[in-house]
Amino acid sequence: MVRSEKRGVRIMPLRVMDLDKEEYVLPGNPSCPGCPASLGLRMLGKVLGPKTVLVIPASCSSIIQGVYPKSSIKLPLLNIAFAAAASTAAGIAAGFEAQGKSDINVVVWAGDGGTVDIGVQAISGAAERGDNIIYVCYDNEAYMNTGIQRSGATPFGAWTTTTWTGKKRWKKDMPSIVVAHKVPYVATASIGYIMDFAEKLRKASKYKGFKYIHLLAPCPVGWRFPPNKTIHIGRLAVRTGLWPLYEVEQGVFKLSPICMPLLKKENRIPVIEYLKLQGRFKHLREEDVRRIQEEVDELWDNIRRKLEDARC
After folding, report:
1. Is the pLDDT of residue 23 over 50?
2. Given phi > 0 = left and psi -120 to 50 = alpha, else beta, which region is 114?
3. Which of 31, 90, 137, 205 gives 20 to 30 Å between its CA and that of 226?
4. Which CATH class is domain 23-311?
5. What CA–CA distances, in Å, run from 174 to 55, 60, 184, 186?
6. Which among 298, 297, 308, 178 has a CA at the least distance from the CA of 247?
């Protein structure tokens, strides 16, 4: 491995055969069919391995782990209140550091409600202090565990049980909020490109300090699509340009290779192809779809400018 303070960590590409063969999320767990949270958590275990401690605030993963005193997750795990995940993980990491144990990954595994809404204050504090943790937000774009209520991560136009005519505001850009804290590593990922997520997990583990990965996690129940379409929906989100995959290492913005062709508008799939597969968007009018498409095009204009700035 070669470390460059300006350009970040360089490591060999991750292959499937490099992953831990152990299963840390056991079969028969209570997750829904097609659940992206269980898929992502399974990959996290295979990348980070047994020297990992999980901190899980109230979320679907609180259910996936099973009912005490048994658990479907073969890693040390602490359940914590919505608002306290990042600060609790920071304390755990400090405890290990005091014992001279520097090879343990302390990971927050949290949904969007516990991240972009209720947990944001503790996240900001941990990021500002540079606490040595990995924070993963698996973003299913609503409070799924408590009845599909709107969150700050719910996208414009989406139906939830508290936005039954469609959300009127745009999705909160949490990765950019974390970037503003000047932490060493921030990345976006999608469950549709699972090895890209794995690569970013591994890279995050190589840095000391606060690391953040925002994982798009399409939810069949809340998004209203068949459970065998989770990966397809996750890929469409990327290929339409709605969910760009990128990294910000040591302050340098890098577009993930999967997304480089999308810099050309003609290579992006129209957003309607993504929206029409989800029942949560079935009420959208043509003008709503047009607004979303315009927002995506503007997003990619901004990405192009960021890449130009990074090359300067």
Report:
1. yes
2. alpha
3. 137
4. alpha beta
5. 19, 20, 16, 10
6. 178
Burial of 54 (C-beta count, 10 Å sphere; 0-12/13-18/19+): buried
Three-state SS annotation for 200-242 = HHHHHHHCCCCEEEEEECCCHHHHCCCHHHHHHHHHHHHHCCC
Q: Write the pLDDT tens digit of every residue in 274-307.
A: 999 999 999 999 999 999 999 999 999 999 999 9
Contact 175, 186 (CB under 8 A): yes
CA 205, CA 102: separation in Å to the nearest integer? 11
Distance CA 294, CA 96 (A): 48
Backbone dihedral angles phi then psi of residue 51, each to the nearest 5 degrees: -85, 60
Q: What angle do CA 255, 260, 261 make, to 5 degrees?
A: 160
Q: pLDDT per residue over 215-234, tens digit each? A: 999 999 999 999 999 999 99
What span, in angstroms and rounded, lies between the C-alpha atoms of 160 and 222?
8
- pLDDT for 190 equals 98
Give the integer Cα–Cα distance in Å for 54 and 76: 6
100 Cβ partners below 8 Å, 6+ apart? none
Q: 197 — phi, psi (to 5°)?
A: -60, -45
Q: What is the residue extent of each domain of the chain?
A: 23-311
Is it the case that residue 1 has pLDDT exceeding 90? Answer: no
Report CA dihedral (95, 139, 24, 82) to the nearest 10 degrees. 40
Say how far apart CA 207 and CA 104 lie, in whole Å.
Answer: 12
Report the share of the chain in percent with pLDDT over 90: 90
Q: How many CB atoms are located within 10 Å of the residue 269 CB?
A: 15
pLDDT, tens digit, for every residue of 60-71?
A: 999 999 888 889
Q: Please count the residues of the chain.
A: 312
Peptide bond before 33: cis, by omega within 30 degrees of 0?
no
